[in-house]
Amino acid sequence: MKCDDCVTAEPKSLKPVDEALAFLLEQVEVLSDTEEIDTALALGRVLAEPVTSTINVPAWNNSAMDGYAFKFDDIAEGQPVRISQRIPAGYEGTQLDAGTAARIFTGAPVPDGADTVVMQEHCHAFSEAGEDFVTIEKKPKAEANIRLAGEDVAVDEVVLERGKKLQPQHLGLAASVGVARLTVYRKLKVAIFSSGDELLMPGEPLAAGKIYNSNRFSLLGLLEKLNCEVIDLGMVEDTLDATCDALARAAEEADLILASGGVSVGEEDHVKPAVEKLGSLQLWKIAVRPGKPLAYGHVNNVPFIGAPGNPVSLFVTFCVFALPWIKKQQGMSGELQPSVIPCIADFDWHRPDKRREYARARLKANDLGQLMAEVYPSRSSGVLSSVTWADGLVIIEPGEIIQKGDQVKFVAFNELLS
Question: Which of 24, 57, 109, 343 has its CA 20 to 30 A from that of 246?
Fold first, then answer.
């Protein structure tokens, strides 16, 4: 069993998670480069300039349903009235004749002279002597069923703030105010590489002492999910020269360098001396499980984050530290941390630790509809299947003991990677 999987006495030098994260986020420099792109292509990008409406939405008073438009004071319930015009969506009617009604359809402009719309289900339409009439059998309240001009968005209203990561509904809102192009931050360029002579690519024969490089694929997926431009430097030989070369190449192109493995102080861990040779490095022991070692520094003025090589440690370290860094560097504003879902523990936790634990967990509902969290039975940082079993992480604070039925804090993977 590896030391990262055991509960052992920890040195006093362990840095608390919140302290390390606060320090990291203070160092982030937001991208300054922007570009203008078609609104249809902006999904997942971060707005660099706010979107302001130049129109009212709706642009005019319009009908909220299919029915008949009339002036409330002109027509009584049960009174047959002449239908003087027909107004489909996309067409504009004329001034409504006094004492008449207009056949109107959802979204069509309400004609001048009308102030109320009655739904067609509350009417009886008929023809007589070559003319069309309608009887309002259930008269609505005055001004009913009309969407007012500017009710949704007013002229000069800011509809999307700078720093917003654009989701499908944001694109729809921008389009609704006539915005065809958006100014966004350019994509963040992140260089990645894996360190370790034991690594092989999937598809290669698995020789003794070798393992397949899962971290490369995890990082590729995580970064693509965050809409980054990935510079994949592949696997780097376990030598100081090879590591220095990879870091130098990464610094020429990237806004951020992410490495997995090789950040410790063993004889085959060359990332630390390589970063120190090309720039500066701070190597911390973080009070977090899994993922205790974390490296932060600069290579030729490009920020560098080095994560542990164990696959679960890499995943958790990325979610806790690298993910908020990337969001801030991309230009995202507001809360960079995921929402915490309170739920009920479906487990006992009688092994308090001096580190904050991010336990792999998944939710289920009990018979009362309450959300229950169960945790994966193994704490091993090498069991990558536990991350696919889980749909999020339960946060267990240092020294915390949990009894089944206690309230716990859960963070969903979907929330982390949105």
Answer: 24
